[in-house]
Amino acid sequence: MNALWTADELQIATNGSFVGPRFDADGIAIDSRTLNVGDIFFALQDQRDGHDFVPAAFSNGAAGAVVSRHNIDPGQALLQVPDTLAALGRLGEFARTRSSAKIAAVTGSVGKSTTKEMLRRIFASFGLTHAADASHNNHIGVPLTLARMPRDAVFAVLEIGMNHPGEIAPLARISRPHVGIITTIAATHIGAMGSLEAIAEEKADLMTGLLPYGTAVLPRGPFLPIMKRRVDPTMRVITFGTDIADEARLLEAESDAEGIDITARILGTVVRCRLQAPGRHMAQNALAALAAAAALDLDIIEAAASLDGFAPLGGRGAKLKLERSGLDITILDESYNASGASVRAALDVLALQSGRHVVVLGDMLELGDFSEDEHLALAEPVAAQADLVFTCGPEMRIMFDALPPDRQGAWAVNAAQLAPLVCSALRDGDVVLVKGSHGSAMRTIIAALAGQN
Ligand SMILES: Nc1ncnc2c1ncn2[C@@H]1O[C@H](COP(=O)(O)OP(=O)(O)O)[C@@H](O)[C@H]1O
Ligand SMILES: [Mg+2]
Predict the structure, then answer these.
(1) pLDDT of 198-231, one tens digit each?
(2) Quick one: pLDDT at residue 1?
(3) Per-residue pLDDT for 453 more than 50?
(4) Atom 7, ligand 1: residue with shortest CA distance
(5) Residue 12 — pLDDT band, cuts 50, 70, 90?
(6) Average pLDDT of every residue of the chain
(7) Structural domains in the chain?
């Protein structure tokens, strides 16, 4: 089998020129610290200039580097291009074109990474499956994921995200999926988008990349008509939800503290599975993943069976059991991200757990003018579920102040300052939900809870 990328392919795909020896590449790296021996290193201009790290990439075993300028030792294996990010994009497009894999692309306000992992698990039981290990869903992550796709992949799952209007369409176009999935429409990044309708329109841009005769998997809900309007007549639509009209329909979902038993009818076939991930939102994601599998004509009973035992990803509901100074504590680690929809989903999971309920929340970011309302609206569901609440950040202060006084544990300016207050309040048997936007650094609190003190 050839290398992931031969020298000829690298040159043709990027339209670059080799400086020094030509080279093949076994993998793609954009960070010299995580580079594997034999990778090609792309010197991207992101927070830092990747050109500064070319020597480090070579000392870590890079096969070569893609650069837009060089003053490095002659003899080093360089591929010179006018723009390294554009070159990565072209390589991603080339990878997509040379591949005969069935491609699923996932977008949506919440649940993209979880649904991607469910699909990875389903597809892997049918053939070689490629998907990114992280949430690589932006203008760098999507082409990177494509460029890393093995030649012989039978399936691939791509995650497509957005922070600002216009970001989804170009990523959808290079992905050219056979099946496009929109997980949910909710108020994440609403600050930049202005309305839920605008969010639904933006997500529906996924359709601009969908292949003719492809399938759109869409969530039932008030924005379904907006999304459906964007689907070309050659494409098939499968909706998922609980409506009798949904071809992927949830018939029963029974959650307990550890998981959820699902019965669903997918294109006429009744299937069952048990996720090791409680909450109806997980059932919704599973429904979307199964609908996508059915769209690709996979055996749906086998697909459902492969979801058995699916567990939440790190920071997205993973359950940790800790012993801290002789106390048994359960943590629901939701520190990866937060929005109104996902906080509500996490509170539903907390409701299933026995023990005192401690809720620790950091700010939900990128909500713009909607921020105060979105935070305040959480006071009621939080008060209904929590025995004791800790929050940090200016936005969560507003929510905290609206809580009944007997639920108010403490507020602090940031996660680092809140952590010791949470730690010292814990009792044996507590269940602690920790959640906030990535930028709120709530993993600091998880680390403190898991620490020695
Ligand atoms: N369908 C859903 N509805 C509400 N919340 C969800 C859903 N799916 C996942 N979540 C929650 O949202 C957060 C982000 O999940 P993730 O799968 O990483 O989504 P994304 O990749 O879209 O950011 C996690 O807290 C997760 O538990
Ligand atoms: Mg993600």
Answers:
(1) 999 999 999 999 999 999 999 999 999 999 999 9
(2) 62
(3) no
(4) 111
(5) very high
(6) 95
(7) 7-83 (3.40.1390.10), 99-307 (3.40.1190.10), 318-450 (3.90.190.20)
**Which residues does ligand 1 sit against, CB inside 6 Å?**
108, 110-114, 135, 183-184, 281, 284-285, 316-317, 334, 336-337, 341-342, 345-346
Considering the entire predicted model, what is its pTM? 0.94
Residue among 167, 342, 442 whose CB has most ligand 1 atoms within 8 A, to mutate? 342
SS (H, E, C) the chain: CCCCECHHHHHHHHCCEEECCCCCECEEECCCCCCCCCEEEECCECCCEHHHHHHHHHHCCCCEEEECCCCCCCCCCEEECCCHHHHHHHHHHHHHHHCCCEEEEEECCCCHHHHHHHHHHHHHCCCCEEECCCCCCCCCHHHHHHHCCCCCCCEEEEECCCCCCCCHHHHHHHHCCCEEEECCCCCCCHHHHCCHHHHHHHHHHHHHCCCCCCEEEEECCCCHHHHHCCCCCCCEEEEEECCCCCCEEEEEEEECCCCEEEEEEECCEEEEEEECCCCHHHHHHHHHHHHHHHHCCCCHHHHHHHHCCCCCCCCCCEEEEEEECCEEEEEEEECCCCCHHHHHHHHHHHHCCCCCEEEEEECCCCCHHHHHHHHHCCHHHHHHHCCEEEEECHHHHHHHHCCCHHHEEEEECCHHHHHHHHHHHCCCCCEEEEECCHHHCCHHHHHHHHCCC
pLDDT score for 70: 80
Q: For residue range 321-330, list pLDDT tens digits in order.
A: 998 888 999 9
pLDDT of residue 452: 43
Tell me, in angstroms, the distance from the centre of ligand 1 to residue 110's CA: 4
